[in-house]
Design a protein that fits this description.
The complex is a heterodimer of chains A (about 120) and B (about 110).
Chain A: E1 3-7, E2 10-12, E3 18-25, E4 33-39, E5 45-51, E6 60-62, E7 70-75, E8 80-85, E9 94-102, E10 105-109, E11 113-117
Parallel strand pairs in A: 2-11
Antiparallel strand pairs in A: 1-3, 3-8, 4-5, 4-9, 5-6, 7-8, 9-10, 9-11
Chain B: E1 9-12, E2 18-23, E3 33-37, E4 44-47, E5 61-66, E6 69-74, E7 83-91, E8 95-98, E9 102-106
Classes of the chains: A mainly beta (about 120), B mainly beta (about 110).
Chain lengths: ~120, ~110
Amino acid sequence: EVQLVESGGGLVQPGRSLRLSCTASGFTFGDYAMSWVRQAPGKGLEWVGFIRSKAYGGTTEYAASVKGRFTISRDDSKSIAYLQMNSLKTEDTAVYYCTRAVQFYFDYWGQGTLVTVSS
Amino acid sequence: SYELTQPLSVSVALGQTARITCGGNNIGSKNVHWYQQKPGQAPVLVIYRDSNRPSGIPERFSGSNSGNTATLTISRAQAGDEADYYCQVWDSSTADVFGTGTKVTVL
């Protein structure tokens, strides 16, 4: 059974950093791209970024709203994807979902972790 | 940037058919995917690549895509189908894009 479990969310002050983790199980992690999607309270879904599998270079893409501040990485030996968030803004407050990406769609989602950016 | 527009809400009588549209410039040339999100839960993929259902998704869910509009159709609507629905595409200039979301109410 495919499982994705996010961790690392919490309350953080504006301008500070936070790192989210996504621990995967139930599939060969290194074979898949992984993506992060967020949802602000009461709002719709917003794609944050993804990281390709090593077979496709392990490269990353980001939404314009987070480019230059957020970094996605992966550790295939541990089956973990990371989302490093720097220079956080109040508008980054959201539930952050980790997803498995297949041909540019998201077939499995974690339960999400809440990030609150507030002073 | 590429944008996807959905109606804010759709209502459907129990047992009838609901159609949720997703509008985008020449969306028919792209692969459209659909997600269902119930309150307090993570989204679930219900349709991928326009009209394909993942395993475990009822046949009542179907999709189509042509011209400037993609459509998710829910046949024989049930109370359990009440949820928010989002379309999504990959665009070469914008990367992944989600629609604005549609709240489906079963009356």
